[in-house]
Amino acid sequence: MRYRRRASPLHAARAAAGGAWCSALAAAALAAEHPVVLVGLAAIVLAGAAGAGVLREVGRVAAWMAPWAVVIAVVNMLVVRQGFTILARLGEVPPFGQVDLTLEALVYGSLFGLRLLVVASAFALFTVAVDPDDLLRVLRRASVRSALAATLATRLVPVLAADARRVEEARRCRADHGGEGAAARVAVLRAVAGNALDRALDVAATLEVRGYGTARRGSAGGGRPWSRHDRAFAASAAAIVALTIASRVAPIAGFETYPELHAVAGGTPAAVALVLAYAVVALLPLADRRGIGP
Amino acid sequence: MAVALAALATAAAGCGLGAGPKAADTQLLVSRDFGAEPIVQDDQPQTGGSDTVMRLLQRNAPKVATRFGGGFVQSIDGVSGGRRDGRPVDWFFYVNGIQADTGATSVKVHQGDRVWWDFHDWSATDDVPAVVGSFPEPFLHGVDGRRLPTRVECADPKSAACSTVADKLVELGLPAARGGVGNSFVEDTLRIVVGPWRAVRGDATIKLLEKGPATSGVFARPSADGRHIALLDAGGKVTRTLGPGTGLIAATRVKDAKDTVSDPVWIVSGTDAAGVDAAASALDEGALAGHFAIAVSGGRPVGLPDRTS
Question: B38 near B53, Cβ under 8 Å?
Protein backbone atom coordinates (compact mmCIF):
# COMPACT_ATOMS: atom_id res chain seq x y z
CA MET A 1 0.00 0.00 0.00
CA ARG A 2 1.62 3.22 -1.14
CA TYR A 3 0.77 6.66 -2.43
CA ARG A 4 0.01 7.00 -6.11
CA ARG A 5 -1.35 10.21 -7.62
CA ARG A 6 -4.91 9.71 -8.80
CA ALA A 7 -7.63 11.93 -10.17
CA SER A 8 -9.44 12.77 -6.96
CA PRO A 9 -10.10 15.92 -4.91
CA LEU A 10 -8.17 14.48 -1.95
CA HIS A 11 -5.13 13.73 -4.10
CA ALA A 12 -5.42 17.20 -5.61
CA ALA A 13 -5.32 18.87 -2.21
CA ARG A 14 -1.96 19.79 -0.70
CA ALA A 15 -0.57 17.37 1.87
CA ALA A 16 -1.15 19.69 4.82
CA ALA A 17 -4.86 19.95 4.04
CA GLY A 18 -5.34 16.29 3.12
CA GLY A 19 -3.35 15.13 6.14
CA ALA A 20 -5.30 17.39 8.47
CA TRP A 21 -8.56 16.07 7.03
CA CYS A 22 -7.59 12.40 7.61
CA SER A 23 -6.21 13.19 11.08
CA ALA A 24 -9.40 15.05 12.00
CA LEU A 25 -11.45 11.97 11.10
CA ALA A 26 -9.15 9.81 13.25
CA ALA A 27 -9.46 12.28 16.13
CA ALA A 28 -13.24 12.26 15.80
CA ALA A 29 -13.20 8.47 16.09
CA LEU A 30 -10.96 8.63 19.17
CA ALA A 31 -13.33 11.10 20.83
CA ALA A 32 -16.56 9.32 19.84
CA GLU A 33 -18.44 7.30 22.47
CA HIS A 34 -21.74 6.38 20.87
CA PRO A 35 -21.70 3.25 18.66
CA VAL A 36 -23.84 5.02 16.05
CA VAL A 37 -21.22 7.76 15.76
CA LEU A 38 -18.40 5.23 15.42
CA VAL A 39 -20.23 3.23 12.77
CA GLY A 40 -21.06 6.49 10.99
CA LEU A 41 -17.42 7.60 11.06
CA ALA A 42 -16.36 4.22 9.66
CA ALA A 43 -18.81 4.71 6.81
CA ILE A 44 -17.57 8.27 6.25
CA VAL A 45 -13.94 7.12 6.05
CA LEU A 46 -14.87 4.40 3.56
CA ALA A 47 -16.97 6.87 1.57
CA GLY A 48 -14.01 9.25 1.57
CA ALA A 49 -11.80 6.43 0.31
CA ALA A 50 -14.30 5.70 -2.45
CA GLY A 51 -14.38 9.39 -3.34
CA ALA A 52 -10.58 9.38 -3.54
CA GLY A 53 -10.57 6.21 -5.65
CA VAL A 54 -8.72 4.17 -3.01
CA LEU A 55 -11.58 2.16 -1.52
CA ARG A 56 -9.89 -1.14 -2.34
CA GLU A 57 -6.70 -0.24 -0.44
CA VAL A 58 -8.47 1.26 2.56
CA GLY A 59 -11.07 -1.54 2.55
CA ARG A 60 -8.24 -4.06 2.71
CA VAL A 61 -6.89 -2.39 5.85
CA ALA A 62 -10.36 -2.28 7.39
CA ALA A 63 -10.88 -5.96 6.59
CA TRP A 64 -7.49 -6.75 8.15
CA MET A 65 -8.39 -4.81 11.30
CA ALA A 66 -11.85 -6.36 11.72
CA PRO A 67 -10.62 -9.64 13.27
CA TRP A 68 -8.45 -7.63 15.67
CA ALA A 69 -11.52 -5.69 16.73
CA VAL A 70 -13.22 -9.00 17.48
CA VAL A 71 -10.17 -10.18 19.46
CA ILE A 72 -10.19 -6.96 21.51
CA ALA A 73 -13.90 -7.40 22.25
CA VAL A 74 -13.44 -11.01 23.37
CA VAL A 75 -10.36 -10.28 25.50
CA ASN A 76 -12.10 -7.34 27.16
CA MET A 77 -15.08 -9.51 27.96
CA LEU A 78 -12.81 -12.13 29.52
CA VAL A 79 -10.80 -9.77 31.72
CA VAL A 80 -13.30 -7.09 32.75
CA ARG A 81 -15.76 -7.90 35.55
CA GLN A 82 -17.96 -4.86 35.21
CA GLY A 83 -21.47 -4.77 33.83
CA PHE A 84 -24.90 -5.88 35.01
CA THR A 85 -26.01 -7.99 32.06
CA ILE A 86 -24.40 -11.38 32.50
CA LEU A 87 -24.20 -13.49 29.37
CA ALA A 88 -22.41 -16.45 30.90
CA ARG A 89 -20.90 -17.51 34.19
CA LEU A 90 -17.53 -19.21 34.24
CA GLY A 91 -17.68 -19.85 37.99
CA GLU A 92 -14.79 -19.44 40.40
CA VAL A 93 -11.50 -19.25 38.55
CA PRO A 94 -8.54 -19.03 40.96
CA PRO A 95 -7.01 -16.57 41.61
CA PHE A 96 -9.48 -14.28 39.85
CA GLY A 97 -12.55 -15.29 41.85
CA GLN A 98 -15.98 -15.12 40.29
CA VAL A 99 -15.70 -14.65 36.51
CA ASP A 100 -18.77 -13.53 34.57
CA LEU A 101 -18.96 -12.58 30.92
CA THR A 102 -21.07 -9.46 30.59
CA LEU A 103 -22.76 -7.76 27.67
CA GLU A 104 -21.35 -4.41 28.79
CA ALA A 105 -17.76 -5.67 28.65
CA LEU A 106 -18.42 -7.14 25.20
CA VAL A 107 -19.89 -3.86 23.94
CA TYR A 108 -17.06 -1.80 25.47
CA GLY A 109 -14.47 -4.05 23.80
CA SER A 110 -16.35 -3.94 20.51
CA LEU A 111 -16.48 -0.15 20.58
CA PHE A 112 -12.78 -0.02 21.36
CA GLY A 113 -12.08 -2.36 18.45
CA LEU A 114 -14.34 -0.35 16.14
CA ARG A 115 -12.57 2.85 17.18
CA LEU A 116 -9.23 1.25 16.36
CA LEU A 117 -10.58 0.11 12.98
CA VAL A 118 -11.76 3.62 12.09
CA VAL A 119 -8.46 5.19 13.15
CA ALA A 120 -6.47 2.60 11.18
CA SER A 121 -8.68 3.16 8.13
CA ALA A 122 -8.31 6.94 8.40
CA PHE A 123 -4.54 6.63 8.47
CA ALA A 124 -4.62 4.10 5.63
CA LEU A 125 -6.46 6.74 3.63
CA PHE A 126 -3.78 9.21 4.70
CA THR A 127 -1.07 6.85 3.44
CA VAL A 128 -2.56 6.22 0.01
CA ALA A 129 -4.05 9.66 -0.69
CA VAL A 130 -1.63 12.19 0.81
CA ASP A 131 1.56 12.89 -1.10
CA PRO A 132 4.44 11.96 1.25
CA ASP A 133 6.92 14.23 -0.55
CA ASP A 134 4.62 17.21 -0.18
CA LEU A 135 4.10 16.30 3.46
CA LEU A 136 7.85 16.08 4.03
CA ARG A 137 8.28 19.50 2.48
CA VAL A 138 5.85 20.79 5.09
CA LEU A 139 7.73 19.00 7.86
CA ARG A 140 11.04 20.36 6.60
CA ARG A 141 10.01 23.78 7.85
CA ALA A 142 9.80 22.41 11.36
CA SER A 143 12.83 20.12 11.36
CA VAL A 144 15.22 19.71 8.45
CA ARG A 145 17.05 16.71 9.79
CA SER A 146 13.90 14.80 10.79
CA ALA A 147 12.34 15.52 7.41
CA LEU A 148 15.52 14.34 5.68
CA ALA A 149 15.62 11.11 7.70
CA ALA A 150 11.94 10.47 7.00
CA THR A 151 12.42 11.17 3.30
CA LEU A 152 15.34 8.76 3.06
CA ALA A 153 13.43 6.07 4.94
CA THR A 154 10.32 6.41 2.81
CA ARG A 155 12.43 6.35 -0.35
CA LEU A 156 14.87 3.61 0.63
CA VAL A 157 12.41 1.06 1.99
CA PRO A 158 10.62 0.56 -1.38
CA VAL A 159 14.03 0.50 -3.14
CA LEU A 160 15.31 -2.22 -0.78
CA ALA A 161 12.08 -4.16 -1.24
CA ALA A 162 12.58 -4.02 -5.00
CA ASP A 163 16.19 -5.14 -4.51
CA ALA A 164 15.00 -8.11 -2.48
CA ARG A 165 12.55 -9.10 -5.23
CA ARG A 166 15.24 -8.90 -7.88
CA VAL A 167 17.75 -10.92 -5.87
CA GLU A 168 15.08 -13.51 -5.05
CA GLU A 169 14.20 -13.86 -8.74
CA ALA A 170 17.88 -14.19 -9.63
CA ARG A 171 18.29 -16.89 -7.00
CA ARG A 172 15.36 -18.88 -8.35
CA CYS A 173 16.76 -18.63 -11.89
CA ARG A 174 19.82 -20.64 -10.94
CA ALA A 175 19.99 -24.26 -12.09
CA ASP A 176 19.76 -25.49 -8.52
CA HIS A 177 17.06 -22.90 -7.71
CA GLY A 178 19.47 -21.28 -5.29
CA GLY A 179 18.85 -23.76 -2.55
CA GLU A 180 15.89 -23.95 -0.19
CA GLY A 181 14.82 -23.10 3.31
CA ALA A 182 16.35 -20.68 5.79
CA ALA A 183 19.84 -20.76 4.21
CA ALA A 184 18.45 -19.48 0.89
CA ARG A 185 16.48 -16.72 2.61
CA VAL A 186 19.54 -15.66 4.59
CA ALA A 187 21.52 -15.42 1.34
CA VAL A 188 18.92 -13.02 -0.09
CA LEU A 189 18.88 -11.03 3.15
CA ARG A 190 22.67 -10.78 3.13
CA ALA A 191 22.67 -9.48 -0.43
CA VAL A 192 19.97 -6.91 0.32
CA ALA A 193 21.70 -5.78 3.53
CA GLY A 194 24.97 -5.40 1.62
CA ASN A 195 23.19 -3.33 -1.02
CA ALA A 196 21.62 -1.20 1.70
CA LEU A 197 25.03 -0.36 3.16
CA ASP A 198 26.38 0.50 -0.28
CA ARG A 199 23.38 2.71 -0.98
CA ALA A 200 23.73 4.38 2.41
CA LEU A 201 27.32 5.32 1.61
CA ASP A 202 26.25 6.66 -1.79
CA VAL A 203 23.44 8.69 -0.25
CA ALA A 204 25.73 10.09 2.46
CA ALA A 205 28.31 11.12 -0.14
CA THR A 206 25.63 12.73 -2.30
CA LEU A 207 24.16 14.64 0.63
CA GLU A 208 27.59 15.91 1.61
CA VAL A 209 28.35 17.05 -1.94
CA ARG A 210 25.02 18.86 -2.13
CA GLY A 211 25.65 20.64 1.14
CA TYR A 212 22.79 19.12 3.16
CA GLY A 213 24.86 19.49 6.32
CA THR A 214 24.30 23.21 6.13
CA ALA A 215 20.68 22.92 5.12
CA ARG A 216 18.45 25.91 5.80
CA ARG A 217 14.80 25.86 6.71
CA GLY A 218 12.42 26.16 3.82
CA SER A 219 10.56 29.41 3.53
CA ALA A 220 7.13 29.29 5.16
CA GLY A 221 5.40 31.35 2.59
CA GLY A 222 6.96 29.77 -0.48
CA GLY A 223 5.31 27.31 -2.86
CA ARG A 224 2.15 27.19 -4.86
CA PRO A 225 -0.94 29.16 -3.95
CA TRP A 226 -3.85 27.47 -2.15
CA SER A 227 -6.23 25.80 -4.55
CA ARG A 228 -9.96 25.35 -4.07
CA HIS A 229 -9.30 21.74 -2.95
CA ASP A 230 -6.69 22.88 -0.44
CA ARG A 231 -9.13 25.35 1.06
CA ALA A 232 -12.04 22.88 0.99
CA PHE A 233 -10.17 20.11 2.81
CA ALA A 234 -8.61 22.51 5.31
CA ALA A 235 -12.03 23.98 6.08
CA SER A 236 -13.52 20.50 6.31
CA ALA A 237 -10.80 19.39 8.75
CA ALA A 238 -11.42 22.48 10.89
CA ALA A 239 -15.17 21.81 10.86
CA ILE A 240 -14.66 18.15 11.86
CA VAL A 241 -12.43 19.22 14.76
CA ALA A 242 -14.97 21.87 15.79
CA LEU A 243 -17.78 19.30 15.74
CA THR A 244 -15.68 16.88 17.78
CA ILE A 245 -14.84 19.50 20.41
CA ALA A 246 -18.46 20.70 20.52
CA SER A 247 -19.75 17.15 20.96
CA ARG A 248 -17.42 16.64 23.93
CA VAL A 249 -17.95 20.02 25.55
CA ALA A 250 -21.75 20.21 25.12
CA PRO A 251 -21.86 17.14 25.60
CA ILE A 252 -23.92 15.37 22.95
CA ALA A 253 -24.18 11.76 21.79
CA GLY A 254 -22.63 10.33 24.94
CA PHE A 255 -22.69 6.63 25.73
CA GLU A 256 -21.96 4.93 29.04
CA THR A 257 -21.02 1.30 28.95
CA TYR A 258 -20.51 0.49 32.63
CA PRO A 259 -22.23 -0.59 34.72
CA GLU A 260 -25.14 -0.66 32.24
CA LEU A 261 -25.43 0.29 28.58
CA HIS A 262 -26.89 3.75 28.59
CA ALA A 263 -27.07 6.45 25.94
CA VAL A 264 -26.69 9.90 27.49
CA ALA A 265 -26.65 13.52 26.36
CA GLY A 266 -29.29 13.26 23.66
CA GLY A 267 -28.85 9.56 23.02
CA THR A 268 -29.28 7.98 19.61
CA PRO A 269 -31.11 10.91 17.91
CA ALA A 270 -28.23 13.21 18.85
CA ALA A 271 -25.76 10.59 17.63
CA VAL A 272 -27.53 10.34 14.26
CA ALA A 273 -27.55 14.13 13.97
CA LEU A 274 -23.84 14.26 14.77
CA VAL A 275 -23.07 11.60 12.15
CA LEU A 276 -25.05 13.52 9.55
CA ALA A 277 -23.14 16.68 10.42
CA TYR A 278 -19.84 14.82 10.18
CA ALA A 279 -20.88 13.33 6.83
CA VAL A 280 -21.81 16.71 5.35
CA VAL A 281 -18.68 18.56 6.44
CA ALA A 282 -16.33 15.65 5.68
CA LEU A 283 -17.65 14.52 2.30
CA LEU A 284 -18.54 17.87 0.78
CA PRO A 285 -14.97 18.59 -0.46
CA LEU A 286 -15.01 15.28 -2.34
CA ALA A 287 -18.00 16.42 -4.40
CA ASP A 288 -15.97 19.05 -6.22
CA ARG A 289 -14.48 17.14 -9.17
CA ARG A 290 -13.05 20.12 -11.04
CA GLY A 291 -9.30 20.32 -11.50
CA ILE A 292 -8.49 16.98 -9.96
CA GLY A 293 -6.32 15.53 -12.72
CA PRO A 294 -2.84 14.25 -11.88
CA MET B 1 -25.10 -39.65 29.90
CA ALA B 2 -21.66 -38.08 29.59
CA VAL B 3 -23.19 -34.82 28.36
CA ALA B 4 -25.63 -34.79 31.27
CA LEU B 5 -22.80 -35.41 33.74
CA ALA B 6 -20.71 -32.66 32.17
CA ALA B 7 -23.65 -30.25 32.33
CA LEU B 8 -24.22 -31.19 35.97
CA ALA B 9 -20.55 -30.65 36.83
CA THR B 10 -20.55 -27.30 35.03
CA ALA B 11 -23.64 -26.14 36.90
CA ALA B 12 -22.16 -27.29 40.20
CA ALA B 13 -19.04 -25.25 39.51
CA GLY B 14 -21.18 -22.14 39.16
CA CYS B 15 -20.96 -22.02 35.38
CA GLY B 16 -23.83 -21.49 32.99
CA LEU B 17 -25.52 -19.15 30.60
CA GLY B 18 -27.32 -16.06 31.79
CA ALA B 19 -27.20 -14.35 35.15
CA GLY B 20 -28.32 -17.28 37.30
CA PRO B 21 -30.46 -16.98 40.43
CA LYS B 22 -30.60 -13.81 42.50
CA ALA B 23 -29.31 -13.69 46.05
CA ALA B 24 -32.31 -13.00 48.29
CA ASP B 25 -32.50 -11.26 51.68
CA THR B 26 -29.32 -9.30 51.20
CA GLN B 27 -28.67 -6.01 52.96
CA LEU B 28 -26.51 -3.09 51.95
CA LEU B 29 -25.01 -0.42 54.18
CA VAL B 30 -22.89 2.40 52.83
CA SER B 31 -21.44 4.67 55.49
CA ARG B 32 -18.55 6.92 56.33
CA ASP B 33 -16.26 7.28 59.31
CA PHE B 34 -16.51 3.74 60.65
CA GLY B 35 -20.29 3.61 60.37
CA ALA B 36 -20.92 6.96 62.05
CA GLU B 37 -22.76 8.46 59.07
CA PRO B 38 -24.91 6.18 56.89
CA ILE B 39 -25.19 7.15 53.23
CA VAL B 40 -27.25 4.19 52.01
CA GLN B 41 -29.04 1.79 54.32
CA ASP B 42 -31.14 -0.66 52.37
CA ASP B 43 -32.66 -3.83 53.82
CA GLN B 44 -34.07 -4.81 50.42
CA PRO B 45 -31.56 -3.65 47.83
CA GLN B 46 -32.04 -4.37 44.16
CA THR B 47 -30.18 -7.51 43.20
CA GLY B 48 -29.44 -9.36 40.01
CA GLY B 49 -28.34 -12.88 39.24
CA SER B 50 -24.73 -13.63 40.16
CA ASP B 51 -24.26 -10.22 41.69
CA THR B 52 -20.85 -9.34 42.97
CA VAL B 53 -20.28 -6.88 45.79
CA MET B 54 -19.45 -4.24 43.18
CA ARG B 55 -22.62 -4.87 41.16
CA LEU B 56 -24.77 -4.72 44.29
CA LEU B 57 -23.20 -1.38 45.16
CA GLN B 58 -23.60 0.03 41.65
CA ARG B 59 -27.24 -1.02 41.51
CA ASN B 60 -28.15 0.66 44.78
CA ALA B 61 -25.75 3.49 45.60
CA PRO B 62 -25.67 6.87 43.89
CA LYS B 63 -22.81 7.94 41.64
CA VAL B 64 -20.31 5.14 42.06
CA ALA B 65 -16.97 5.91 40.41
CA THR B 66 -14.37 3.17 40.07
CA ARG B 67 -10.68 2.97 39.28
CA PHE B 68 -8.09 0.39 38.27
CA GLY B 69 -10.31 -1.09 35.57
CA GLY B 70 -13.42 -0.99 37.71
CA GLY B 71 -12.03 -3.19 40.46
CA PHE B 72 -11.87 -0.57 43.18
CA VAL B 73 -14.26 2.14 44.31
CA GLN B 74 -12.94 5.67 44.05
CA SER B 75 -16.04 7.54 45.16
CA ILE B 76 -19.65 7.04 46.15
CA ASP B 77 -22.09 9.92 45.98
CA GLY B 78 -19.17 12.31 45.64
CA VAL B 79 -17.31 10.98 48.71
CA SER B 80 -13.94 10.28 47.20
CA GLY B 81 -10.87 8.40 48.40
CA GLY B 82 -7.54 10.13 48.72
CA ARG B 83 -6.44 12.34 51.61
CA ARG B 84 -8.51 14.27 54.12
CA ASP B 85 -6.79 16.65 56.53
CA GLY B 86 -3.51 15.03 55.54
CA ARG B 87 -4.73 11.53 56.40
CA PRO B 88 -5.41 8.73 53.92
CA VAL B 89 -9.07 7.90 53.42
CA ASP B 90 -10.67 5.28 51.19
CA TRP B 91 -13.59 2.97 50.70
CA PHE B 92 -13.44 -0.50 52.28
CA PHE B 93 -16.01 -3.27 52.20
CA TYR B 94 -17.05 -6.09 54.47
CA VAL B 95 -19.30 -9.04 53.70
CA ASN B 96 -21.00 -10.41 56.80
CA GLY B 97 -18.51 -8.43 58.85
CA ILE B 98 -15.46 -9.90 57.16
CA GLN B 99 -12.98 -7.94 55.08
CA ALA B 100 -12.46 -9.59 51.71
CA ASP B 101 -9.05 -10.63 50.44
CA THR B 102 -9.93 -9.77 46.83
CA GLY B 103 -11.51 -6.89 44.90
CA ALA B 104 -15.23 -6.18 44.98
CA THR B 105 -15.69 -7.43 41.42
CA SER B 106 -14.48 -10.88 42.46
CA VAL B 107 -16.63 -11.39 45.55
CA LYS B 108 -19.99 -12.98 44.87
CA VAL B 109 -23.02 -11.99 46.94
CA HIS B 110 -24.86 -14.94 48.48
CA GLN B 111 -28.29 -15.25 50.01
CA GLY B 112 -28.63 -13.33 53.26
CA ASP B 113 -25.28 -11.56 52.94
CA ARG B 114 -24.87 -8.19 54.60
CA VAL B 115 -22.58 -6.00 52.54
CA TRP B 116 -21.09 -2.96 54.22
CA TRP B 117 -19.07 -0.28 52.43
CA ASP B 118 -17.38 2.20 54.72
CA PHE B 119 -15.32 5.26 53.93
CA HIS B 120 -12.74 5.87 56.62
CA ASP B 121 -9.36 7.11 57.69
CA TRP B 122 -6.79 4.34 57.46
CA SER B 123 -3.83 6.12 58.96
CA ALA B 124 -3.83 3.72 61.94
CA THR B 125 -4.42 0.61 59.85
CA ASP B 126 -5.68 -0.33 56.42
CA ASP B 127 -6.45 -3.82 57.64
CA VAL B 128 -9.54 -4.25 59.80
CA PRO B 129 -10.04 -7.97 59.18
CA ALA B 130 -13.43 -8.32 60.91
CA VAL B 131 -16.13 -6.08 62.34
CA VAL B 132 -19.14 -6.72 64.58
CA GLY B 133 -21.60 -4.32 62.96
CA SER B 134 -23.25 -6.91 60.73
CA PHE B 135 -24.41 -9.12 63.64
CA PRO B 136 -26.02 -11.71 63.53
CA GLU B 137 -23.70 -12.24 60.57
CA PRO B 138 -21.43 -14.06 59.99
CA PHE B 139 -23.10 -16.61 62.28
CA LEU B 140 -26.37 -16.91 60.31
CA HIS B 141 -25.17 -17.10 56.71
CA GLY B 142 -21.49 -17.73 57.17
CA VAL B 143 -18.51 -16.97 55.03
CA ASP B 144 -18.58 -16.94 51.22
CA GLY B 145 -22.05 -18.48 51.15
CA ARG B 146 -21.09 -21.30 53.49
CA ARG B 147 -22.55 -21.41 56.98
CA LEU B 148 -19.97 -22.45 59.55
CA PRO B 149 -20.48 -24.07 62.94
CA THR B 150 -20.38 -21.65 65.88
CA ARG B 151 -18.70 -22.44 69.14
CA VAL B 152 -19.01 -20.38 72.30
CA GLU B 153 -15.80 -20.67 74.28
CA CYS B 154 -16.08 -19.46 77.85
CA ALA B 155 -13.48 -18.87 80.53
CA ASP B 156 -16.17 -20.10 82.91
CA PRO B 157 -18.75 -22.19 81.05
CA LYS B 158 -21.12 -21.88 84.01
CA SER B 159 -21.01 -18.09 84.12
CA ALA B 160 -24.06 -15.96 83.47
CA ALA B 161 -22.33 -14.20 80.57
CA CYS B 162 -21.60 -17.51 78.87
CA SER B 163 -25.25 -18.53 79.17
CA THR B 164 -26.41 -15.13 77.94
CA VAL B 165 -24.29 -15.36 74.78
CA ALA B 166 -25.31 -18.96 74.10
CA ASP B 167 -29.00 -18.17 74.68
CA LYS B 168 -28.85 -15.23 72.27
CA LEU B 169 -27.44 -17.47 69.58
CA VAL B 170 -30.11 -20.08 70.23
CA GLU B 171 -32.75 -17.35 69.83
CA LEU B 172 -31.33 -16.73 66.38
CA GLY B 173 -31.68 -20.42 65.56
CA LEU B 174 -27.99 -21.13 65.88
CA PRO B 175 -27.14 -24.41 67.61
CA ALA B 176 -23.91 -23.13 69.20
CA ALA B 177 -21.67 -25.57 71.01
CA ARG B 178 -20.10 -24.51 74.31
CA GLY B 179 -16.67 -25.28 75.66
CA GLY B 180 -13.53 -23.95 77.30
CA VAL B 181 -11.29 -21.34 75.73
CA GLY B 182 -8.91 -22.67 73.10
CA ASN B 183 -10.08 -26.29 73.55
CA SER B 184 -12.02 -26.53 70.33
CA PHE B 185 -11.10 -27.69 66.88
CA VAL B 186 -10.91 -24.20 65.36
CA GLU B 187 -10.65 -24.77 61.60
CA ASP B 188 -13.82 -23.75 59.75
CA THR B 189 -15.44 -22.74 63.00
CA LEU B 190 -16.67 -19.34 64.13
CA ARG B 191 -15.58 -18.81 67.71
CA ILE B 192 -17.07 -16.47 70.29
CA VAL B 193 -14.76 -16.22 73.26
CA VAL B 194 -16.42 -15.05 76.47
CA GLY B 195 -14.70 -14.08 79.70
CA PRO B 196 -12.73 -11.43 81.60
CA TRP B 197 -9.71 -10.20 79.67
CA ARG B 198 -7.12 -11.69 82.02
CA ALA B 199 -8.77 -15.10 81.61
CA VAL B 200 -9.04 -15.10 77.79
CA ARG B 201 -5.88 -13.23 76.75
CA GLY B 202 -3.97 -16.51 76.54
CA ASP B 203 -5.70 -17.21 73.24
CA ALA B 204 -3.24 -16.32 70.45
CA THR B 205 -5.84 -14.57 68.29
CA ILE B 206 -7.39 -12.59 71.14
CA LYS B 207 -4.02 -11.44 72.42
CA LEU B 208 -3.58 -9.49 69.17
CA LEU B 209 -5.82 -6.78 70.67
CA GLU B 210 -3.10 -5.83 73.14
CA LYS B 211 -0.88 -4.86 70.19
CA GLY B 212 -3.32 -2.25 68.93
CA PRO B 213 -5.29 -1.67 65.72
CA ALA B 214 -2.34 -2.05 63.35
CA THR B 215 -2.21 -5.74 64.32
CA SER B 216 -5.76 -6.60 65.37
CA GLY B 217 -7.86 -4.04 63.48
CA VAL B 218 -9.65 -3.26 66.77
CA PHE B 219 -9.56 0.32 68.06
CA ALA B 220 -9.36 -0.69 71.73
CA ARG B 221 -6.35 -1.92 73.64
CA PRO B 222 -6.91 -3.88 76.85
CA SER B 223 -4.10 -3.73 79.39
CA ALA B 224 -2.19 -6.94 80.00
CA ASP B 225 -3.64 -7.26 83.52
CA GLY B 226 -7.13 -6.76 82.08
CA ARG B 227 -8.07 -3.98 84.51
CA HIS B 228 -8.31 -1.24 81.92
CA ILE B 229 -9.35 -0.89 78.31
CA ALA B 230 -7.95 2.04 76.33
CA LEU B 231 -10.28 3.36 73.64
CA LEU B 232 -8.59 4.65 70.50
CA ASP B 233 -9.63 7.14 67.85
CA ALA B 234 -9.40 6.59 64.08
CA GLY B 235 -5.77 7.70 64.15
CA GLY B 236 -4.90 5.07 66.74
CA LYS B 237 -4.47 7.55 69.62
CA VAL B 238 -5.87 6.85 73.08
CA THR B 239 -8.93 9.00 73.76
CA ARG B 240 -9.80 7.60 77.17
CA THR B 241 -9.10 4.64 79.40
CA LEU B 242 -12.00 2.85 81.02
CA GLY B 243 -11.73 0.86 84.24
CA PRO B 244 -13.86 -1.62 86.18
CA GLY B 245 -17.24 -2.60 84.77
CA THR B 246 -16.18 -1.98 81.16
CA GLY B 247 -17.15 -4.50 78.50
CA LEU B 248 -15.82 -5.05 75.00
CA ILE B 249 -17.25 -6.74 71.90
CA ALA B 250 -14.85 -7.00 68.97
CA ALA B 251 -13.83 -9.36 66.21
CA THR B 252 -10.53 -10.09 64.56
CA ARG B 253 -8.70 -12.66 62.47
CA VAL B 254 -5.17 -13.94 62.52
CA LYS B 255 -2.76 -14.76 59.70
CA ASP B 256 -0.63 -17.88 59.89
CA ALA B 257 2.92 -18.30 58.59
CA LYS B 258 1.59 -19.00 55.08
CA ASP B 259 -0.42 -15.75 55.18
CA THR B 260 -3.66 -17.70 55.34
CA VAL B 261 -6.29 -15.76 57.29
CA SER B 262 -8.34 -17.59 59.91
CA ASP B 263 -12.08 -17.38 60.26
CA PRO B 264 -13.20 -14.50 62.49
CA VAL B 265 -12.97 -14.82 66.24
CA TRP B 266 -15.39 -12.72 68.30
CA ILE B 267 -14.45 -11.47 71.72
CA VAL B 268 -17.05 -10.77 74.41
CA SER B 269 -14.91 -9.62 77.25
CA GLY B 270 -14.44 -7.01 79.93
CA THR B 271 -12.26 -5.72 82.68
CA ASP B 272 -14.11 -7.90 85.22
CA ALA B 273 -17.20 -10.09 85.56
CA ALA B 274 -19.48 -7.07 85.55
CA GLY B 275 -17.88 -5.86 82.34
CA VAL B 276 -18.26 -9.26 80.69
CA ASP B 277 -21.91 -9.40 81.74
CA ALA B 278 -22.45 -5.93 80.26
CA ALA B 279 -20.81 -6.99 77.01
CA ALA B 280 -22.84 -10.20 76.83
CA SER B 281 -26.04 -8.21 77.35
CA ALA B 282 -25.05 -5.85 74.53
CA LEU B 283 -24.63 -8.71 72.06
CA ASP B 284 -27.60 -7.86 69.90
CA GLU B 285 -28.24 -6.33 66.51
CA GLY B 286 -29.46 -3.01 67.88
CA ALA B 287 -26.34 -2.30 69.92
CA LEU B 288 -23.83 -3.56 67.38
CA ALA B 289 -25.33 -2.31 64.10
CA GLY B 290 -23.01 -0.06 62.16
CA HIS B 291 -20.06 -0.36 64.58
CA PHE B 292 -16.66 -1.87 63.91
CA ALA B 293 -16.46 -2.85 67.58
CA ILE B 294 -18.00 -1.57 70.80
CA ALA B 295 -16.97 -0.94 74.35
CA VAL B 296 -19.71 -1.02 76.98
CA SER B 297 -19.43 1.62 79.64
CA GLY B 298 -22.11 2.34 82.21
CA GLY B 299 -24.38 -0.08 80.38
CA ARG B 300 -24.18 1.94 77.14
CA PRO B 301 -22.41 0.87 73.97
CA VAL B 302 -19.58 3.11 72.76
CA GLY B 303 -18.71 2.69 69.08
CA LEU B 304 -15.09 2.13 68.17
CA PRO B 305 -12.98 3.88 67.02
CA ASP B 306 -13.90 6.32 69.78
CA ARG B 307 -15.08 9.71 68.52
CA THR B 308 -14.65 11.46 71.87
CA SER B 309 -11.98 14.09 71.43
Answer: no
Rounded Cα distance between B256 and B262, Å, is 8
Distance between CA B200 and CA B273 in Å, rounded?
Answer: 12
Of A79, A80, A81, the CB nearest to B106: A81
Can you give the residue ranges of every domain in chain A? 9-131+228-287, 144-214
A208 part of contact set with chain B, CB < 8 Å? no
Cα separation, A185 vs A176, in Å, equals 15
Whole-number average pLDDT of chain B: 90
Distances (CA, A) of B87 to B42, B120, B149: 29, 10, 39
3-class state of residue A239 by DSSP: helix
- Cβ(A102)–Cβ(A110) under 8 Å? no
At A221, the pLDDT band (50, 70, 90 cuts) reads very low
B273-282 per-position pLDDT tens digit: 999 999 999 9
DSSP-derived letter for residue B259 is: -
**pTM, full prediction:** 0.77
Per-residue pLDDT tens digits for A8-63:
999 999 999 999 999 999 999 999 999 999 999 999 999 999 999 999 999 999 99
Distances in whole angstroms, Cα of residue B112 to Cα of each of B25, B43, B45:
5, 10, 11
Which of A98, A103, A105 shows the shortest CA–CA distance to B15?
A: A98
Which member of B49, B66, B106 has the closest CB to residue A86? B49
8 Å CB contact of A86 and B48: yes
CB contact (8 A) between residue A98 and residue B52? yes
Task: Give the Cβ contact number of residue B247 at 10 Å.
Answer: 29
Count of beta carbons in the 10 Å neighbourhood of residue A188: 18
Q: How many residues does chain B have?
A: 309
Distances from the Cα of A18 to the Cα of A132, A168, B51, B216, angstroms: 11, 37, 50, 66
CA distance linking residue B33 with residue A284, whole number of Å: 60
In what order do the strands lie in the sheet containing B300-304?
B177-180, B150-154, B190-196, B265-270, B247-252, B293-297, B300-304
Closest CA to B90 of B129, B117, B61: B117
